[in-house]
Amino acid sequence: MAIADRQQEHSGVPQRVEPKDVLAVSDLCVRSQDKTILQNVSFGVKKGSTLAIVGPNGGGKTTLFRALLNLVPYSGTIKWSEEGRRIGYVPQTLITTDLPISVEEFLRLKCKTDFESCLNLVDLEKGILKQSLGSLSGGELQRVLIAWAIVENPGVLLFDEPTSGVDIGAEEPIYSKVSHLARDSGVTILLISHNMHVVMHYSDYVLALNRQPLFYGKTSSTSHSKLLSIIYGGEFDQSEHEGQRE
Amino acid sequence: MIFALIVGASVGSAAGYLGSIMVSKHMALVGDALSHVALPGLALGILFNFNPFVGAFALLAATAVATWQIQKSTSLPMESIIGVLFVLALAIGILITPQVELYEALFGNISAVTLYDSIIAAVVSVAVIFVTRAIYDKIVLSMISKELAVSSRIKVDQIQLVYLLLVATIVAVGIKEVGTLLVGAVVIVPAVAARIASKTLRTYSLLSLVFGIVSATFGVVVSNYLGVPAGPMVVIIGAVIFAAGLGLSLFYPRIQKRVEIIQPTLKESEKELEPTK
């Protein structure tokens, strides 16, 4: 079967967005210097659900987030509900971690009142408040960024590969925390990840992107190997070798 | 000299405070280059018989706005844009500034500072510090991550423009005393010195302000005593503070380690001298 036919069969790309979605994106296109980065992206995100965004490098995942945050010019429509007006964003990394700023000062940039409860939610000790942001390990920094994102009870959380730079053993606790947050507080989560295990276990819906939508639907309606097949082409047998072509 | 000291302390404090942001944004050379842009503005004021410092400020503000707009439109680094504008401004300024006033325009003249100048400097510097404090957190966040700043509803571009205009303002006020060639250093050097000694943002911003005051006031006093221009002395005092901080940061860990070695040895000696029970 040709790749184009396979994509058509599995696409599940919605033709319209539902009125009660927290986020409704319709015909989103992003271009830069005569190059198309994203085109014809349409999807909706229901309140309290987790949408995983997957795709190859350069497929437009981070650009999608930048468009949602109004950081890049785009055409099409992006509509947020009231919950979407309070966004917590967790970037992959920070530009200036050599700034002499402590964790406490960084959190106080957003919230002047008590934020220690947010540290507890991400299993960080109070002692980390006095440490410099630049001295934190990858896992500690990601937890601090998650604490930052949740400190003012956002309605929506955007995670851009939250475990890049984190040891493999430290990934699972972070995603587990994120999942608990969504379940306990009804926060809507959009998550970019390369980790198919995480996608299949922690998301309700999945959007596969490679400059345009390849698949959008419930996670339960697809599988690890099918997703890899849609994104990269070829056949993937999950039972024998994770992610390897036959 | 009292008026010169008031101008020095006022401009030094505001410049140091602003400089803590400039150094953190890796814009140290921008601060220096921006100050040279004032020269043609001064020259136009002299030639057309209006307050030269109004001319300097107008050109500085126009350059700040032009730089901001060009960066937004082209994504060129700010250093590159300022680099072109500053050399152009310096070249034009040298050509059109009357020779008699050129030395004073480049290096300043503390004896020409009046009561009016000191009042203006004090009022403007306090205002600059207040406005900088109001936007400080927003600028820091936009330095750490533009995405975090935007998701926190910070208007990053507008804040950047306000910051550039604040730098333009304090440079314009400091020109009379320090000159266009070195006034940028009043913004940068105290902040670089403070960076060495700072582990938190609060310490960094306060130390930058304090070092700014110290370098400017001591620079004025020493220049008056030696009969030399204030600009170079302010920069030299700032550099001395930087060197002292650098030396302490290099040797303090060794001193601290030495103390840690000596202290257990002393404790063991004390035990030997205790009478046996």
How many extended strands of chain A?
9
- The number of strands of chain B is 0
Instruction: Characterize the quaternary organization of these chains.
Output: heterodimer
Overall structural domain count of chain B? 1
Number of helices of chain B: 12
Query: Termini of chain A, distance in Å?
Result: 15 Å
Low-confidence stretches of chain A: 1-11, 240-246
Radius of gyration of chain B, in angstroms, nearest whole number: 22 Å
Overview of the molecule:
The complex is a heterodimer of chains A (246) and B (277). With 246 residues, chain A is an alpha/beta fold. Chain A has a domain at 3-86 and 153-232: Rossmann fold, CATH 3.40.50. Chain A has helices spanning 3-10, 61-68, 103-108, 116-121, 138-150, 168-185, 196-202, 224-232, and strands at 23-32, 35-45, 50-54, 75-80, 87-90, 156-160, 188-192, 205-209, 213-218. In chain A, the strands form 2 sheets. A 6-stranded mixed β-sheet of chain A has the order 5-6-7-3-8-9, sandwiched between helices. A 3-stranded antiparallel β-sheet of chain A has the order 2-1-4, with helices on one face. In chain A, strand 8 and strand 9 form a beta hairpin. Chain B has 277 residues and is an all-alpha fold. Chain B has one domain: ABC transporter involved in vitamin B12 uptake, BtuC (Orthogonal Bundle). In chain B, helix 3 (38-47) packs antiparallel against helix 6 (99-107). Chain B is globular. Mean pLDDT of chain B is 82; it is low at 265-277. Classes of the chains: A alpha/beta (246), B mainly alpha (277). The interface between A and B is medium-sized, with 26 and 21 residues.
